[in-house]
Amino acid sequence: MSAVVTDNTDVSRFEIYLDEEFVGFTEYRRQPGIIAFVHTEIDPAFEGHGLGGQLVSEALDASAEEGLDVLPFCPFVNEYIDEHQQYLRLVPAEMRAKFGLASD
């Protein structure tokens, strides 16, 4: 089985597909230089297989490639960043306390 993440800009969300079957998304709001992640969902039938982590990781990597600051309003994205400190640099230092994230 192969999971693929795409940025569906028409509906403002990164989507994950498993063998071409839609299994989840992380929704965002964009402003110049900023992406705010607001909600993430994985189909319950596919939970526990690491797809949510892959989805968020690839969304954060794409955000980094674009040089965007990340605002993790979504609890899942926030927790992912907290557990994967390499992404902490994407959250502006002055905003980290607001999201309960430790400064690096």
Summary tags:
globular, five-stranded mixed beta sheet, 104 residues, 35% strand
Number of strands: 5
Radius of gyration, rounded? 13 Å
What percentage of amino acids are in beta strands? 25-35%
**Integer average pLDDT:** 95
Strands of the widest sheet, in order across it, are 1-2-3-4-5
**Straight-line distance between termini:** 36 Å
Output the helix-strand order. EEEEHEH
What class do helices, strands and sheet pairing give?
A: alpha+beta
What would you note in describing this structure?
- This protein is of the alpha+beta class and 104 residues long.
- It is built from two helices and five strands, in the order ββββαβα.
- It has helices at residues 51-65, 75-83; strands at residues 3-8, 13-18, 21-31, 34-42, 69-72.
- Strands 1-2-3-4-5 form a five-stranded mixed β-sheet.
- A hairpin with a 2-residue loop joins β3 (21-31) and β4.
- It starts with a strand and ends in a 21-residue tail after the last helix.
- The model has no long low-confidence stretch (mean pLDDT 95).
